[in-house]
Amino acid sequence: MAERSDFPFVSIVVPAYNAAGTLAACLDALHAQSYPRDCYEVIVVDDASTDETVQIARRAGAQVVAEGKLGKSGVRNRGAQEARGEIVLFTDADCEPLPTWVETMVAPFRRDPEVVGVKGAYLSRQREPLARFTQVEVEERYDRMARQETIDFIDTYAAGYRRDLFLEFGGFDETLPEVEDQDLSFRLARAGKKMLFIPDARVYHRHATSVRRYFWRKFAIATWKHLLINRYPERFLSDSRTPQSLKVQMGLALLMTLLAVPALFAPAARRALAGVSVAFLLACFPFLRKAARRDPAILPFSLVMLWVRAEALVLGYLKGILKFRGRKTA
Fold first, then answer.
1. 235 Cβ neighbours under 8 A, 6+ residues apart
2. Are residues 39 and 163 in the same domain?
3. What is the rounded CA–CA span in Å between residue 330 and residue 318?
4. Domain of residue 52, residue span
5. Do 133 and 235 share a structural domain?
6. Boundary of a domain, candidates 209, 233, 253
7. What is the pTM of this model?
8. 175 and 110 part of one domain
């Protein structure tokens, strides 16, 4: 049996804003971990909530940091500054980690001193079509990441870093309202730091169920992604997370949009639109095949949502081109 000294002390940071509806379940899950209880702490950083978030966190025995409105990067950075652990883990207030989550996230750091960051995976219990579509969407990315020895992107819902390196690299960029996790990951990757995908480090999550919210979320991420490409042009062609088929879908969705009006008047444009539409379906085939195996009931819905996703991403990216035009700062 491992001695207590074999377990590094871990700080788990949970940013929270008006999280009264989900925070208790998150903290219950964190207090039920297989990792030795005296070897980790839970820190809830409140982002100026107006509900009972702070009271719920205190009743659950979590350490609470409440210093006003910091923003989603600011609360995570503040949590890391407050942390006592040599490893800092992040999860979200609407997540419920499995009992082995901390143990599984920490294991790569214990095995390999070169590892500076790790990324876990989503699970979902939701039955709404959009949530089920989103779960297949993230699992498509997991398939890509699982084939790679190292990764260059860590999401904040199940993230782990060596605290000293996290602080040395400045944590999350607080000037970015989106893609701050990608920015930190790309900075670490550019410096040659080793990051791993740990698919067994899983958390239950509540995905969005509103198509409108999903669209605007993708739109915002794509807008700020262009700024990241200005900062890290080496990530334009490929990164460890984004399926290449998604980029093809975005290009074809743009062509479909450009051909839509001419197709009302010109037979040649209608034929071109039909051809591009068929090409779009072919580009979606890897996703549809995965959906058919995992959750075939959402296949018709997935066809619609793949187009919605591609349109949101391409329109957001076009906005980013206009907004940032060669700039590397927000």
1. 152, 186, 228, 229
2. yes
3. 16
4. 4-209
5. no
6. 209
7. 0.93
8. yes
Residue 281 sits at the vertex; the CA angle it makes with 220 and 144, to the nearest 5 degrees, is: 60
Q: Render pLDDT for 162-210 as a digit per residue (tens, 0 to 9).
A: 999 999 999 999 999 999 999 999 999 999 999 999 999 999 999 999 9
| Nearest by Cα to 156 from 264, 221, 72 | 72
